[in-house]
């Protein structure tokens, strides 16, 4: 279980201190899927980066399965059981897909192991296993590869920051199916940051972040109707038709 207690994150903007995450507290139970949504610029991605240790909290505590990881760096948090998928996955010219998967797993992977991981996210293993992780890969390919790296070893908690960003409808459908499989197994807790209705509908609980604070938190049935009525959910089909 993840416990977040009074978390605050501040940045310095031209000598002026500004709070991006403001005294946030919540929990994620074992096997639970929590979807975080809310207006752009509200602090969702900053919260995710603080949880992963990419940014340091100014105040508050982060506890994972009873272990206080607040002062852990990103590597130690990964060792403690947190996996993270960036909104815009990094590319590594000169690194092949099989090598990246081995690095993510923390051990050398056999070719059959790599192929199984790639097939699990909808990538043809023969076509991708020796490709470089560079600009020749599309946004959808990178997103699926990013998920494969997160799944390369077991985690207690996986965080995905807007996994739908910059991908086509078919790739989005593949990602949704992968999240459904992970969630069904209940072996890992999930935090997904998203505006997409199809992802939000999968949630056990939904948390709305506005202006760095929790605007609402509750079960899907409690929160989703309000989001739909306020038009805060995006539909992937409409986005694709509109060319976005």
UniProtKB/TrEMBL annotation:
InterPro entries: AAA+_ATPase (IPR003593), ABC_AA/LPS_Transport (IPR051120), ABC_transporter-like_ATP-bd (IPR003439), ABC_transporter-like_CS (IPR017871), P-loop_NTPase (IPR027417). Keywords: ATP-binding, Nucleotide-binding, Transport. One of its GO terms (molecular function) is ATP hydrolysis activity. Residues 2-236 form the ABC transporter domain. SMART domains: AAA. GO terms for cellular component: plasma membrane. It holds the Pfam family ABC_tran. Signal peptide: none annotated. PANTHER family: CONSERVED COMPONENT OF ABC TRANSPORTER FOR NATURAL AMINO ACIDS-RELATED, LIPOPOLYSACCHARIDE EXPORT SYSTEM ATP-BINDING PROTEIN LPTB. This is ATP-binding cassette domain-containing protein.
């Amino acid at each position: 279980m993840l416990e977040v207690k009074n978390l605050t994150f501040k940045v310095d903007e031209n000598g002026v201190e500004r709070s991006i995450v403001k005294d946030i507290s919540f929990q994620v139970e074992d096997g639970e899927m929590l979807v975080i949504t809310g207006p752009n610029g509200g602090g969702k991605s900053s919260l995710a980066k603080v949880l992963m240790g990419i940014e340091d909290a100014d105040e508050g505590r982060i506890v994972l399965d009873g272990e206080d990881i607040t002062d852990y760096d990103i590597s130690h948090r990964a060792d403690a059981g947190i996996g993270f998928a960036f909104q815009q996955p990094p590319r590594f010219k000169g690194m092949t897909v099989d090598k990246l998967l081995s690095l993510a797993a923390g051990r050398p992977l056999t070719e059959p192991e790599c192929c199984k991981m790639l097939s699990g996210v909808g990538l043809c293993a023969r076509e991708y296993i020796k490709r470089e992780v560079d600009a020749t890969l599309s946004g959808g390919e990178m997103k699926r590869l990013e998920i494969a790296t997160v799944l390369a070893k077991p985690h207690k908690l996986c965080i995905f920051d807007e996994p739908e960003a910059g991908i086509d409808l078919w790739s989005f459908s593949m990602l949704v199916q992968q999240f459904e499989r992970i969630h069904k197994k209940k072996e890992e807790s999930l935090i997904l940051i998203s505006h997409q209705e199809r992802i939000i509908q999968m949630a056990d609980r939904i948390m709305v972040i506005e202006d760095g604070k929790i605007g609402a938190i509750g079960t899907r049935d409690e929160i989703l109707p309000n989001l739909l009525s306020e038009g805060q959910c995006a539909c992937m089909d409409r986005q694709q038709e509109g060319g976005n």
